[in-house]
Amino acid sequence: MARPKGSRTILVRITYDTFGELAGGIAGDTARQYAQRGQFNPRDLDSSLTWVNARRTAKGLPLIGLATEVSEAVSDEDLEAVISTPAPIQTGLLIYNPITACYREDI
């Protein structure tokens, strides 16, 4: 079944209340007013994060969207391969076979 013509799939929904919370606890209406004044574009994630991070910096809060502790990437070249041992053979137990949906006794 196809989607109705003109419908959109919503991936992320951020309200002005969310912008206000992220910016350090201002009201959603206040965040909307800042957007209407042109301080940030609520439809542009980069613009919104820049504005939110500027407000958070002014209040001494950590930034959003940036790593606080940047570490070097781990290389796979130095790692050793893990060799697994085969499972021990079980005898005298009931073993369930999901293909046949029944138990079989392994002697």
Automatic annotation (TrEMBL):
Name it.
Uncharacterized protein
Q: Give the originating organism.
A: Symmachiella macrocystis
